[in-house]
Amino acid sequence: MSVLDIVKIPDDVLRQTAAPVERVDDELRRFLDDMMETMYDAPGIGLAAPQVGVLRRVVTVDVAREDEEKQPLFLVNPEIVTSSEERSTYDEGCLSIPDYYAEVERPASVTVKYLDRDGKEQQLDCEGLLATCVQHEVDHLNGVLFIDYLSKLRRDRVFKKFAKAKKLGLL
Ligand code: GNR
Ligand code: NI
Fold first, then answer.
1. What is d(CA 57, CA 48) in angstroms, rounded to the nearest whole number?
2. pLDDT averaged over the chain?
3. CATH number among 3.40.50.920, 3.90.45.10, 3.40.50.150, 3.40.50.1110, domain 12-167
4. pLDDT above 90 (res 169)
5. Are strands 58-61 and 46-48 parallel, antiparallel or unpaired?
6. pLDDT tens-digit profile of 61-106?
7. What angle do CA 103, 105, 107 make, to 5 degrees?
8. Choice among 19-28, 129-138, 158-167 with the minimum mean pLDDT
9. What is the 3-state secondary structure (H, E, C) of the chain?
10. How much distance in Å is there from the Cα of 73 to the middle of ligand 1?
């Protein structure tokens, strides 16, 4: 297993749509394990393949707190099939936008359909932080970032800050 490099904004790969996985095989499982290791190493509660430069519909998640048992989730081709009317707000961050946090409102609960690490179809009802994280990760697969939910003024400010940092060779 290995820790992969995490891509930061304004890298264009974060704005592209990831392609569905056709087969869950050993090669994909190795990649899933590398993603999980990268996520734990960061540390983060979720990671989407485009964040390590791979345009495949693959996500890892673990929202367990440090004092809880690990709850690793591997989501292949995740699809949100239902979203609640009820909304909730979390202070979100993103490993691809280091040290920036902002409140984002999203459906409070969602049901996600996906293939697990064995290629088996699964459906999971999510609420709380898990629901927010799953939506944040599925957004990544569609080239959407949490800053897209902020005002244009705030989004541009964040983007400019990171573009400048990149230009100065700080990222
Ligand atoms: O580690 C992460 N924390 C987080 C907190 C609130 C809402 C979403 C997230 S996901 C983020 C890791 C990440 O960037 N995943 O794409
Ligand atoms: Ni993210």
1. 8
2. 97
3. 3.90.45.10
4. no
5. antiparallel
6. 999 998 999 999 999 999 999 999 999 999 999 999 999 999 999 9
7. 145
8. 158-167
9. CCCCCCCCCCCHHHHCCCECCCCCCHHHHHHHHHHHHHHHHCCCCEEEHHHHCCCECEEEECCCCCCCCCCCEEEEEEEEEEECCCEEEEEEEECCEEEEEEEEEEECEEEEEEECCCCCEEEEEEEHHHHHHHHHHHHHHCCCCHHHHCCHHHHHHHHHHHHHHHHCCCC
10. 14
CB-CB contact of 127 with 82 (8 Å): no
92 Cβ closer than 6 Å to some ligand 1 atom: yes
Residue 14, ligand 1, Cβ within 6 A: no
Residue 25 burial class via C-beta count within 10 angstroms: exposed 0-12, middle 13-18, buried 19 and up = exposed
Residues in the chain: 171
CA-nearest residue, atom 16 of ligand 1: 47
Output the CA–CA distances (angstroms, integers) from residue 19 to 16, 22, 23, 41, 135, in the order listed: 10, 9, 12, 26, 17
For the chain, the domains span 12-167
The pLDDT assigned to 1 comes to 87
